[in-house]
Design brief:
DNA binding; RNA_pol_sigma-70_dom; 8 helices; mainly alpha; Arc Repressor Mutant, subunit A; RNA_pol_sigma70_r4_t2; single chain; Sigma-70 family RNA polymerase sigma factor; RNA_pol_sigma_r3/r4-like
């Protein structure tokens, strides 16, 4: 029983690491695009003014933009290009498209397994199993590079 708890603990910590790495990457990505938009958007624009109203609001604004961007798989590919951890990037790039979508939808967008299963047209149990097997695969790949 203890071995199983240790395995779940390891999965949780790896998921947290992966989520943090991807979150930091997506924030860098959005900051870059916000800078571009600042040059293009008039100062009176409400979205820009809202983003300028405070740091907390600014990051909420970034998170909302990231969620919208991550709906499209092309944006997942753009986020992958910004990941600085070479081992993590290499491991993620080896995944097939379905696994990439599943990982990003679950970790970045916080989608439920039911939502993911519906989008991928697979049973929920398969979505859950694929997610955890993918985490194991990523962990193993990062360890052995």
């Amino acid at each position: 029983m203890e071995g199983k708890n240790k395995e779940f603990s390891t999965q949780d910590s790896f998921s947290a690491y992966l989520k943090t790495a991807v979150r930091n990457t997506k924030i860098k990505y959005i900051k870059k695009h916000v800078k571009i938009q600042e040059a293009e958007i008039p100062i009176g624009d409400s979205a820009y003014a809202e983003a300028e109203s405070g740091q907390g609001d600014y990051y909420r604004h970034l998170e909302e933009q990231v969620s919208r961007l991550c709906e499209d798989f092309g944006d997942v590919e753009q986020l992958l290009n910004l990941i600085e951890n070479e081992r993590l990037l290499a491991a993620l790039m080896k995944l097939d498209d379905e696994r990439k979508r599943l990982i990003f939808w679950r970790i970045i967008n916080g989608m439920s397994f039911e939502e993911i299963a519906a989008r991928l047209h697979i049973p929920m149990k398969k979505a859950v199993d694929t997610y955890y097997n993918t985490l194991k695969k990523l962990r193993k790949e990062m360890r052995h590079g």
